[in-house]
Task: inverse folding
């Protein structure tokens, strides 16, 4: 392999000629700008980058990226992207989806892409509402949510997207926030470097139908006390003054938050995204309360597991390695295999 | 003892037993021996959906019918001349299909009080005169097999399971079949357990020798080879031929084949077969569901593969939204529907021309696709190539309507010369196509094929976005413009309607027929056999068979209007007849049967004679 050539791309190279048509103030703008700014860093030619989306506000994303892209149908992006990725290992394939697209109509494809560990970077824009259809509750809306379709409040319990992804054997799971460009890019960077499926939940504000859903995580007055910024190798402490920490109490199944002053330093959990047992990342995913207190962001889990693509390509390569004939000769041999007879 | 040898021109044998008795294997082997001898052959397996229905019951009966002759034949035969019944259930389930005088070979060991009671026999039909109209050969198949294997190191259970080889040996002797291929097969099949090779070979030979020595079988039969075109042949099922056709399409196009499939009867064998051909660059993905299967295939097509998905009716229903997306994206996609009896789960192992309506119309919006149907097991090979040709040349989804009858039936196949197969090479777009020399217009069409450029990811300078939203002509940008939508809908219709397909050919050897029988798909054999029968009685009748159902051949209307009457037999309630009536205003007579079984030539012959009487 030759040394990669620096392509010297800029954010502008990734902007398509299409007018961006999300509602003014939508969190999607910030995510788009962050990704356009981030993409040059990967040094992957635009033509080898593909964004595949489903249906929903977030799924308009590919139109705005000057790469290859497909705006497909509701919920099916992971399936379509799987066929593309496994047959074209030279491509960098990204899936852009939303909470309704990925977790409701497309739930099956999401979990199977994750368990297979297809080499996809899956970005789930979670705004906890159906925006494109004008404001029905979504599978991440809180119980009791009053919307157009639930005037008496939603009776459904929501999914925790990260718990779901971990249960589906995801090898990479992270979370970030639309408004924090630096953090968003740091998680994308880690996702892009990961071989296999990388699942990133992005908290995204829908200012029309669910404004302020993540406000506590953004407001300078509250965010430091609410957010847990995970950093690999660092003890998990948070709060404006580091006054909170995460511990694993003896006998407990999961992790719990304590006041830092109340525990010995060695009791504080040191974050390790490479822990093989998904129970650790799962426990992290269960920390937030209904009020968004104790919300971890960052890379929860990043473990090595062969990607589906590499296994499939490996089988193809092994089978082809035994071939000495031309394809036509091989075909003639295949057609004449089994019991044949000749009539003169 | 010297046995009399009698010459026959054709024979139909049905092997019937419990679904665990190995009847499909027995039938398969007998077919292979028969193929080696050079007879023409047609076969029909008939088995329950349950893998192991309760032993000895009527629902558990599995059968395999083979028709062989010294001339070319078109169907597996209406009625067996010989029934091999491995138990009372097999006898009871099949007796009604036998003409008087047929031979019945029964395994008397299974005619126990308990087994008889299971299927409602008060007394053994072997002991009363209820089978007086048949030639019954009682054979203690199980105990003779066990006896023959007494000296072998196999369990009693394994010895008993070899009884199908005893039956095969007996039938092979009766019909003077060459059995070397069966011995080779047993060596391959039980390669890991030499004691089973020895036991099965011994069981086979015991059956053969039993025929030779017992006085119950006084006559041995011969069916001379058929006059067939010179060349190398193999016996092949429709599903196997279809799989090979897809491999061939990959070779002839130079594209990797990507199959996305979810297991479903009766299509799964295509997935199994294609999964063996990785050395041809064929990727198979067993998807999480039918929707993912077609989605992955479409994703692969987008990336420059020949995307294929294989399924049956219920699966096509689930895939329909993605097929519509493929219509909008204008990408190649082959959808194979091995039809079975519906609606819903229906009868998964039984045949029906169930899905023509769904193939033609079963999508939201104006979403036309090309539709083709193979007429016989070996024709599935060429139909697969034709489906790929249309998909790749015209950048469209193509639905290939096979069915359980052609999928699992088999016939001899004259192997084609690989170089004679169609050249399916395609050109991917590599350069901007806009007037300014730098712009790429993903929906700028080839004026001849109306196909848009296939610009695969990885091609620098052609980055573009496609999707399910309506697109502006040429640029492919999102468009809600009324005139543009009208234009695009009509263009998508024209894209399919103007695909050139061969004219339909009419077979009318007498040249003066006033009645035309029109069929499509797997009814070709029974219709053809019925027409032959009609002509043998001195009557004239014309036969035409549709391979392309969308678009239809350009000369079809003219052909239809040149006959006084048009009869359309279908294994559905008249799905093609509706289309013909609507498109061509021809008052076609629809003849229908939905019993999960192919037409018999005899019933069609009777129907056609009735029509001829009234012309």
Result:
């Amino acid at each position: 392999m030759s040394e990669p050539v620096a392509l010297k791309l800029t954010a502008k190279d990734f902007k398509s000629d299409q007018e961006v048509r999300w509602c003014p103030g939508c969190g999607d703008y910030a995510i788009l700008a962050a990704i356009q700014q981030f993409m040059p860093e990967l040094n992957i030619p635009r033509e080898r980058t593909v964004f595949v989306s489903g249906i929903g506000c977030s799924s308009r994303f590919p139109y705005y990226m000057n790469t290859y892209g497909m705006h497909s149908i509701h919920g099916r992006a992971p399936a379509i992207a799987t066929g593309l990725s496994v047959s074209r290992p030279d491509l960098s394939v990204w899936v852009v989806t939303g909470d309704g697209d990925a977790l409701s109509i497309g739930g099956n494809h999401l979990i199977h892409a994750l368990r297979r560990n297809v080499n996809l970077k899956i970005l789930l824009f979670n705004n906890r509402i159906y925006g494109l259809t004008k404001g029905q509750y979504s599978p991440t809306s809180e119980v009791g949510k009053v919307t157009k379709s639930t005037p008496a409040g939603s009776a459904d319990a929501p999914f925790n997207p990260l718990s779901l992804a971990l249960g589906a054997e995801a090898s990479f799971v992270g979370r970030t926030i639309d408004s924090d460009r630096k953090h968003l890019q740091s998680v994308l960077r880690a996702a892009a470097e990961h071989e296999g499926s990388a699942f990133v939940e992005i908290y995204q504000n829908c200012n029309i139908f669910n404004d302020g859903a993540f406000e506590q995580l953004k407001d300078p007055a509250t965010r430091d006390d609410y957010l847990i910024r995970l950093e690999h190798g660092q003890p998990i402490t948070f709060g404006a003054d580091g006054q909170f920490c995460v511990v694993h109490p003896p006998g407990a199944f999961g992790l719990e938050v304590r006041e830092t002053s109340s525990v010995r330093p060695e009791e504080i959990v040191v974050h390790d995204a490479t822990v093989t047992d998904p129970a650790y990342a799962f426990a992290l995913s269960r920390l937030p309360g209904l009020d968004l207190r104790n919300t971890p962001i960052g890379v929860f889990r990043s473990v090595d597991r062969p990607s589906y693509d590499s296994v499939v390509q490996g089988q193809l390569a092994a089978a082809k390695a035994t071939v000495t004939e031309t394809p036509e000769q091989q075909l003639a041999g295949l057609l004449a295999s089994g019991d044949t007879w000749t009539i003169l | 003892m010297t046995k009399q040898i009698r010459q026959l021109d054709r024979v139909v044998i049905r092997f019937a037993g419990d679904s665990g008795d190995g009847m499909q294997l027995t039938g398969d082997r007998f077919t292979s021996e028969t193929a080696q001898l050079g007879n023409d052959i047609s076969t029909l397996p008939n088995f329950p959906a349950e893998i192991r229905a309760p032993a000895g019951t009527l629902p558990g009966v599995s059968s395999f019918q083979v028709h062989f002759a010294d001339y070319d034949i078109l169907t597996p035969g209406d009625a067996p001349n010989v029934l091999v019944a491995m138990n009372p259930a097999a006898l009871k389930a099949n007796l009604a299909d036998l003409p008087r005088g047929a031979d019945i070979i029964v395994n008397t060991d299974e005619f126990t009080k308990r087994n008889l009671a299971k299927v409602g026999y008060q007394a053994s039909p072997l002991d009363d005169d209820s089978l007086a109209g048949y030639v019954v050969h009682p054979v203690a198949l199980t105990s003779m097999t066990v006896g023959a294997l007494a000296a072998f190191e196999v369990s009693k259970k394994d010895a008993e399971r070899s009884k199908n080889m005893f039956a095969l040996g007996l039938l092979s002797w009766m019909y003077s079949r060459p059995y070397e291929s069966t011995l080779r097969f047993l060596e391959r099949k039980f390669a890991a357990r030499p004691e089973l090779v020895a036991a099965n070979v011994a069981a086979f030979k015991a059956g053969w020798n039993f025929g030779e020595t017992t006085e119950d079988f006084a006559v041995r039969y011969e069916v001379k080879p058929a006059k067939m075109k010179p060349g190398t042949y193999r016996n092949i099922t429709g599903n196997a031929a279809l799989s090979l056709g897809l491999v061939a399409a990959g070779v002839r196009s130079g594209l990797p084949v990507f199959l996305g499939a979810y297991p479903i009867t009766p299509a799964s064998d295509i997935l199994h077969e294609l999964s063996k051909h990785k050395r041809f660059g064929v990727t198979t993905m067993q998807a999480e569901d039918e929707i993912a299967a077609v989605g992955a295939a479409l994703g692969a097509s987008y990336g420059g593969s020949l995307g294929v998905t294989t399924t049956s009716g219920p699966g096509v229903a689930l895939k329909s939204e993605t097929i519509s997306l493929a219509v909008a994206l204008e990408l190649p996609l082959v959808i194979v529907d091995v039809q079975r009896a519906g609606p819903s789960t229906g009868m998964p192992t039984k045949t029906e021309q169930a899905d023509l309506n769904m193939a033609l119309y079963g999508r939201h919006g104006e979403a036309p696709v090309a539709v083709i149907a193979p007429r016989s097991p070996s024709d599935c090979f060429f139909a697969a190539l034709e489906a790929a040709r249309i998909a790749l040349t015209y950048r469209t989804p193509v639905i290939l309507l096979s069915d359980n009858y052609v999928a699992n039936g088999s016939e001899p196949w004259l192997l084609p010369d690989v170089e004679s197969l169609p050249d399916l090479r395609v050109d991917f777009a590599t350069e901007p196509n806009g007037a300014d020399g730098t712009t790429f217009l993903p929906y700028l069409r080839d004026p001849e094929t109306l196909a848009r450029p296939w610009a695969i990811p990885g091609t620098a300078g052609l980055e573009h976005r496609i999707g399910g939203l309506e697109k502006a002509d040429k640029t492919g940008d999102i468009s809600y413009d009324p005139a543009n939508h009208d234009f695009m809908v009509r263009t998508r219709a024209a894209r399919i309607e103007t695909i050139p397909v061969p004219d339909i050919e009419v077979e009318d050897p007498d040249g003066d027929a006033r009645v035309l029988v029109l069929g499509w798909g797997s009814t070709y054999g029974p219709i053809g056999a019925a027409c032959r029968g009609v002509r043998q009685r001195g009557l004239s009748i014309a036969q035409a068979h549709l391979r392309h159902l969308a678009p239809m051949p350009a000369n079809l209307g003219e052909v239809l209007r040149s006959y006084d009457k048009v009869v359309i037999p279908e294994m559905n309630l008249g799905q093609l007849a509706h289309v013909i009536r609507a498109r061509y205003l021809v008052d076609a007579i629809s003849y229908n049967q939905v019993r999960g079984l192919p037409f018999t030539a005899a019933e069609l012959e009777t129907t056609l004679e009735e029509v001829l009487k009234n012309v």
Summary: Chain B touches chain A through 69 residues (CB under 8 Å). Chain B has a mean pLDDT of 96.
